[in-house]
Amino acid sequence: MSSGQRGFPALADYARENGKITAYDPNWRPSLWGSRAEGIAAMRSLVGRADIMKVSEAELTLLSEKDDMADGAAELPGQGVKLVVATLGARGCAAYTPAFSLHRNTYNTEIQDTTGSDDSFSSALLAKIVLSDCRIDDLPENNAFPCGMNKNT
Fold first, then answer.
1. CB–CB of 94/135 below 8 Å?
2. How far apart are CA 77 and CA 40, in angstroms?
3. Positive or negative torsion for Cα 25, 31, 37, 39
4. Which of 22, 102, 104, 132 is paired with 142 by a 20 to 30 Å CA distance?
5. Above 90 in pLDDT, residue 150?
6. Which of the four pLDDT bands, split at 50, 70 and 90, describes residue 35?
7. What is the rounded CA–CA span in Å between residue 133 and residue 56?
8. Burial of 21 (0-12, 13-18, 19+ CB in 10 A)
9. Cβ–Cβ contacts within 10 Å for residue 23, how many?
10. Quick check: 3 pLDDT over 70?
11. 124 beta partners
């Protein structure tokens, strides 16, 4: 485990203790871990430190051991996550809280390059939440999730 991987839990704990929103994107990369089990265990160890999780369908399956996305997302709030957003590629995104779930389609565009698309999506999502001055616990269903953010990528 790298020093960054060891330091992140303390940083996330500090942020939450000081009333800051924490967000976590597992960004699963099997090649970064000695074994699949080690990587999954490390990802799971950070779930309870996140208010918001942005996951892919594959990451959600790895973390929850559930094939159904809604069932998998339902597992995470019990660990402290308030909002789970799953990116679905050309199908948009899905958001889950203990109170509601929703799906947003993306724009139908010709994809040129997907490099940085998850980072753009996460940035837009977090900016929307922070700029709306909305508590995550009370996130309204009509909040504009950024599924179309990457239409030019």
1. no
2. 18
3. negative
4. 22
5. no
6. very high
7. 26
8. middle
9. 19
10. no
11. none
Phi, psi values for residue 95, rounded to 5°: -120, 140
pLDDT of residue 95: 87
**44 contact partners, CB below 8 Å, separation of at least 6:** 63
The pTM of this model reads 0.81
Q: What is the pLDDT of residue 77?
A: 83
Cα distance between residue 62 and residue 59, in whole Å:
5
Burial of 96 (0-12, 13-18, 19+ CB in 10 A): buried
Sign of CA dihedral 127, 132, 133, 137: negative
> DSSP for 62-122?
HHH--SSHHHHHHHSGGGT-SEEEEE-GGG-EEEE-SS-EEEEPPP----S--TTHHHHHH
Q: What are phi and psi of 35, to 5 degrees?
A: -150, 160
pLDDT per residue as tens digits for the range 100-135: 888 888 877 777 777 777 788 888 888 887 777 666
Distance separating alpha carbons of residues 144 and 65, to the nearest angstrom: 29
Alpha carbons within 13 angstroms on the beta-carbon side of residue 62 total: 22
